[in-house]
Amino acid sequence: MQRIFAFFSQRATTLFFPIALILYDFAAYLSTDLIQPGIINVVRDFNADVSLAPAAVSLYLAGGMALQWLLGPLSDRIGRRPVLIAGALIFTLACAATLFTTSMTQFLVARFVQGTSICFIATVGYVTVQEAFGQTKAIKLMAVITSIVLVAPVIGPLSGAALMHFVHWKFLFAIIAAMGLIAFVGLLLAMPETVQRGAVPFSARGVLRDFRDVFRNRVFLFGAATLSLSYIPMMSWVAVSPVILIDAGGMTTSQFAWAQAPVFGAVIVANMVVVRFVKDPTQPSFIWRAVPVQLSGLAVLIAGNLLWPHVWLWSVLGTSLYAFGIGMIFPTLFRFTLFSNNLPKGTVSASLNMVILTVMAVSVEIGRWLWFNGGRISFHLLAVVAGIAVVFTLAALLKRVRQHEATTLATES
Questions:
Q1: In total, how many domains does the chain have?
Q2: For the packed helices 80-97 and 104-120, what is the interaxial angle rounded to 10 degrees?
């Protein structure tokens, strides 16, 4: 009987837990992507200024940063399971609350609370995957999770645009709330526990000490810089593209949705390439081969917009090519940053996500300002500067990772 129970317990960990996490993550993405084609409608329904449209993304990101300081150390001490399950419930309730909003302010507050899902998923959920599986399997599983979840930015705008021909935009959040509820039940039934509860007492001094140690670690600093800078071209485009393509470009919501598909489809293809064809995604030679792809995408972004400034194709094509390059190595960079040290993983993940989300939220606001005050070229230069900086931080990260691995081998021998 014990063997049967152990078999089904392991089966739940390897199959049903990732499915529940994917559904939670997928719903969190949809809360932005499904409504993206209709965000102008939201603004108009509430008689608000169109410049507030990107704030629905930046406040979502701010919500994703708000609880990082607490959830990482908390999950290190009381366990990953209760923290992630609570997060799924909070997200579900926040999506349901959107149905009752009557002003842009209330809508943005709901978006902020929905954004806390990033805290729970990235800080607790992804760490649990990394702890429950070995290095190569965890990297490839994260690539699979990312690929499936990133279907949301591809089908989300298309589905949202289609649904809004028949239903009010608030109904979209009802769909997302239902998905969140199913994910909550799935995590409740299948999520494993990967830390020993109560092994470390929860105290303000202990939490501050852990955060201090994390931000003194060179691998973490260069990893956080590489990951956060890598996100800037993608997130600035996601936040500002409705204004660029719909408000200024005159696209319909359906046209806008199709224009977004290549960007996120490129990330999905990149992750599938890693899962299917790359034997060891941690090899520096493989990582460096992805860098020219990213840089060529940024070159297309600028050159195309300089030569044909009124053709939006170059913005989409350049961003898509960049997305393919970064998609191939992102899971590996996350693994390096998280595990190339001996620090508490929940605190490391929380610190990493605070840095990433801060940079993303600031970059969205900078991108919005550049678009409204400097135009398309100024806006795209933000992506180029970030992409070039990534090359230098990546070189420093890989050097520190090699040093850590050499030290670890010397200690073990």
A1: 1
A2: 160
* pTM summary value: 0.76
**Confidence at residue 193, expressed as pLDDT on a 0 to 100 scale:** 87
Cα–Cα dist 118/249, whole Å: 31
Q: 98-142 pLDDT, tens per residue?
A: 999 989 999 999 999 999 998 899 889 999 988 887 777 888 888
Catalogue the E-assigned strands of 62-184: none
Contact status, residue 87 vs residue 113, Cβ threshold 8 Å = no
Residues 332-345, mean pLDDT to the nearest whole number? 84
The angle subtended at Cα 179 by Cα 177 and Cα 182, nearest 5°, is: 110
Q: Which of 8, 120, 10 is nearest to 65 (CA)?
A: 120
The Cα-based distances of 259 to 151, 217, 251, 253, 301 in angstroms read 14, 41, 10, 10, 15
Closest CA to 339 of 141, 131, 145: 131
pLDDT digits (tens, 9 = 90+) for 184-236: 999 999 898 888 776 677 778 888 898 999 999 999 999 999 999 998 998 88
Q: Which residues contact 138 (CB under 8 A, 6 or more apart)?
A: 129, 130, 132, 335
The one-letter amino acid code at 351 reads S
Summarised one tens digit per residue, pLDDT across range 225-263 is: 999 999 899 888 877 887 778 877 777 777 777 787 888
Question: Domain containing 261 — which CATH number?
Answer: 1.20.1250.20
The DSSP secondary structure of 304-316, one letter per residue, reads HHHHSTT-THHHH
Distance of CA 228 to the CA centre of its chain: 10
Where in the sequence is the domain holding 218, given as residue range(s)? Answer: 2-412
Which residue has tokens 């191939």?
A: 328
pLDDT (average), residues 152-179: 86
Q: List all residues 6 or more positions away from 282 whose beta carbon is below 8 Å from its beta carbon.
A: 135, 136, 139, 332, 335, 336
